[in-house]
Design a protein that fits this description.
- It catalyses: [(1->4)-alpha-D-glucosyl](n) + phosphate = [(1->4)-alpha-D-glucosyl](n-1) + alpha-D-glucose 1-phosphate.
- Pfam families: Phosphorylase.
- Its EC number is 2.4.1.1.
- With 377 residues, this protein is of the alpha/beta class.
- The protein has a single domain, classed as Rossmann fold.
- Helices cover 45% and strands 20% of the residues.
- A hairpin with a 6-residue loop joins strand 9 and strand 10.
């Protein structure tokens, strides 16, 4: 795709965005307004680039890559995308003619609170690298509301505060509510047989809605655009009767408990509640993701028989490994595969990378917590 934009065209687009999206003139706009206006322009270009990437992949029959990781340390999108698309010089000149410094706009963008360390940075680099090399790739993670934390020194002591990154960062996210997916927790399983088919019913479960938000990542020279899909947890239900009776806190309790799942990255796990939340986060990620992958694949091919031939699912570290039993569950309980056939497809589709052999870096979950929280597994 040709991303070229003249200085004059850039000025026109910025002015249009300021007026139509924020209701301000260029003379009265703040640096925040300019930053968001430029981000919206770049997001539109990336969206078009992503559409062309999908068309090119169809023509060349390139295998689709799905990359699952608990975190993606993306950094700041504006500077990275302007550089990759070759637009930084023209945007700098256009903004300069409007009395704005591009470097000041860079400072308006917070780091996306989706990762905090080497694992997240590795995942972000892989996504960038896959796009640069022309591979169609989709990364999957969670949309953490507060990221991990920000540090502040108070009287010489480190204090951890919430990282409010969404007000400045959500301009890069495209909500896709029509692609929401249900994830089930708790409850119990009832099994039976119907005409030699094994029937599995999940009863009395807690339903949490996974709302997808898409962020686009350009490769160098913009030859390919990857997508990062992150899930936000929401409750699909609201107790209007309880709310109207004046019991407002109880009415909101279910929604609040659902949203806890994607509040922060790596909650403390030195207590039972923290361990349960971490396990819940991991299953929420893999269940929503695997359902999304299967839905996309069945829409296109109507069978999972060819999944290993056209798709590769990569698990980055231990956190998303529940994707393996979740894919098996869907193939066995929902698609009617035998164990042997399902296992053959799964083992040829899913790959896993572990970055250390230290036992303390690996995860271990109690059977009781697994049995109660993840009934379907």
């Amino acid at each position: 795709m040709n991303y070229a934009m003249s200085v004059g065209k850039i000025k026109e687009e910025i002015e249009s965005r300021l007026q139509h999206n924020f209701g301000v003139s260029p003379e009265n706009a703040t640096d925040e307004h300019y930053y968001k206006a430029v981000a919206l322009i770049i997001s539109d270009l990336l969206c078009k680039g992503r559409a062309e990437t999908k068309v090119d992949a169809e023509k060349t029959h390139t295998k689709q890559i799905y990359y699952l990781c608990m975190e993606f340390l993306m950094g700041r999108s504006l500077k990275n995308n302007l550089f990759n698309l070759g637009l930084e010089a023209n945007f700098r000149e256009a903004l300069s003619q409007m009395g704005i410094k591009l470097d000041d706009l860079y400072e308006e963008e917070p780091d996306a609170g989706l990762g905090n360390g080497g694992l997240g940075r590795l995942a972000a680099c892989f996504l960038d690298g896959l796009a640069t090399q022309g591979y169609p790739a989709i990364g999957y993670s969670l949309r953490y509301e507060y990221g991990i934390f920000r540090q502040k020194l108070v009287d010489g002591w480190q204090t951890e505060l919430p990282d409010f990154w969404l007000p400045g960062g959500k301009v890069w996210l495209q909500e896709v509510p029509e692609k929401a997916i249900e994830v089930h927790f708790d409850g119990h399983i009832e099994e039976g047989w119907n005409n030699q088919y094994h029937i599995v019913n999940h009863k009395d479960y807690t339903n949490v809605l996974a709302i997808p938000y898409d962020m686009y990542v350009s490769g160098y020279d913009g030859r390919c655009v990857a997508k990062l899909r992150i899930w936000a947890a929401r409750s699909p239900e609201f107790d209007m009767k309880m709310f109207n009776s004046g019991n407002y806190m109880r009415a909101m309790e279910q929604n609040a408990m659902a949203e806890v799942i994607t509040k922060v990255l790596y909650p403390e796990d030195n207590h039972v509640e923290g361990k349960s939340l971490r396990l819940t986060q991991q299953y929420f990620l893999v269940s929503a993701t695997i359902q999304d992958i299967v839905r996309r694949h069945l829409f296109k091919y109507s069978t999972l028989d060819n999944l290993p031939d056209v798709a590769a699912i990569h698990l980055n570290d231990t956190h998303p490994v529940l994707a393996i039993p979740e894919l098996m569950r869907i193939m066995l309980d929902e698609c009617g595969y035998t164990w042997e056939a399902a296992w053959d497809i799964v083992t040829r589709t899913v790959a896993y990378t572990n970055h250390t052999v230290m036992s303390e870096a690996l995860e271990c979950w109690g059977q009781d917590m697994f049995r109660l929280r993840l009934t379907q597994q």
